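TODO from last week: model nitric oxide dioxygenase.
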Amino acid sequence: MSLDDAAVRASGLEEIAPHLQTAQRSVAALGIDPETFVPRFYRTLFGYAPGLRSLFPLAMETQHSRFGRALVHVITHLDEPSTLIGFLAQLGRDHRKFDVRDEHYAVVGQALLVALADTGGAAWTDEVARAWAHTYAFLAGSMQAGARSDPGPAWWGATVVGHERVERDLAVVRVRTDEPFVYRAGQYVTVETPQHPRLWRALSPAVAPDRSGELEFHVRAIGYGSVSRGIVASARPGDRWRIGPPMGALDRAVVPGRELLMIGGGTGISPIRALVEQLERAGGRPERAVVFYGARDWDSLHALDGLRRTSYRNPWLDVVPVVEEPPAVPGPLVGRLADVVTGFGSWADCEVVVSGSPAMITATIRALRVAGASLDQIHYDPFVTD
Ligand SMILES: Cc1cc2nc3c(=O)[nH]c(=O)nc-3n(C[C@H](O)[C@H](O)[C@H](O)COP(=O)(O)OP(=O)(O)OC[C@H]3O[C@@H](n4cnc5c(N)ncnc54)[C@H](O)[C@@H]3O)c2cc1C
Ligand code: HEM
Ligand code: HEM
């Protein structure tokens, strides 16, 4: 993959581009394998700066610190500079909630370069070393600039005001922030709960912002999940949460006059529910909107009643339930969301929102592309790779 020259020039990245290219080309020769590189990086980092250990999860082995893996992901995906700067600015802004300060970037950079040198052996030439030093300075500088440019708080304190276990493994949780929290329908936030300090997880408000100042989340406890199980089983009114700045822009899919296809799997329906609520309230509507809402079985389609009621009031909206396991009574469509949706056609002339688990997002985007949709019509949030 090559760097996009026009984008580089447009965003003032011209000077750094050759270094990014050299660094990117060196990845294979250095032999960076996350399984060995990540522990080596942390050992080096905490050797230089033991004080930084307190910023990370309590038990790094069982609670999987994400930083090391994320860093490997970033340094092995250095292409697409046009999207890089915006992404890094948001990441830097978000890092304020981890208590990361300007001075931490230098020691992390030092640890990264030493770990890379140890890993690379003979492939770590002077030229490669110089390229990585510039590359890290660029990544860190963009993140620090993003952090400085945000006048808002690093996080909001919030109190749980409602916790209802609507299924064995699904809870509807309402929280009220101490200070007003401004977000757009379809965005997500990260939260930290008292049950699992320092483990931040993404959750999507299931309602459009309103004057009550409350956020509502639908949380599904997943198999071995620490935070999600903690929230579903143990969150209580009165618990104090921290909420990170709002992120994502699924609302870019809403273009007046254009058709909108929204595909939500499981709790991935939450941002779609918020978008639909916002559209009903505020107008600026697409020509027509279709929601495909999928879950394992009929009972797990917890948001269906509400969505259906909205569609009865609004002729521009259709809601199509899809289940994976054949139901006892006929009714919903049966199959994988990706297959059912693309069975209706290519959807080439509309904007598409895809929201759900990592596996669902990957499968759905792949199926849409095979059916003829292009990537720039498709809107989705980043998701955890592991
Ligand atoms: C943008 C975004 C929005 C999100 N919105 C919501 C939401 O509104 N409601 C909600 O309940 N969750 C939502 N999630 C998922 C949530 O952030 C957590 O990833 C999830 O709750 C698991 O966290 P955990 O600590 O319980 O599990 P972890 O301890 O992080 O993971 C335990 C194991 O489960 C696997 N795993 C992680 N996530 C999933 C998954 N989704 N499906 C299957 N296996 C998985 C991991 O690979 C790991 O092996 C969202 C995620 C993203 C990226
Ligand atoms: C170029 C520099 C950096 C990059 C690209 C980077 C990238 C990332 C990413 C992508 C995440 C995961 C975010 C999430 O899951 O929500 C993360 C988490 C984190 N980062 Fe960074 N980061 C950088 C610098 C730093 C620095 C300087 C520190 C300070 C020590 C730091 C500390 C953390 C912490 C504490 C976490 C969360 C805890 C965890 O789960 O590991 N990062 N980083
Ligand atoms: C929590 C943070 C992140 C998550 C969960 C994440 C997730 C993903 C996933 C799932 C992909 C597609 C699959 C792959 O090629 O591996 C991807 C691709 C990519 N990511 Fe990230 N990412 C994160 C952070 C970043 C950051 C901080 C950057 C850059 C600064 C970045 C740059 C890229 C690029 C350029 C690609 C495209 C690579 C290609 O097409 O080959 N990512 N990311």
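Done. Residues 52, 55-57, 65-67, 70-71, 74, 91, 95, 98, 100, 104-105, 108, 139-140, 143, 190, 200 surround protoporphyrin IX containing FE (ligand 2) (CB under 6 Å).
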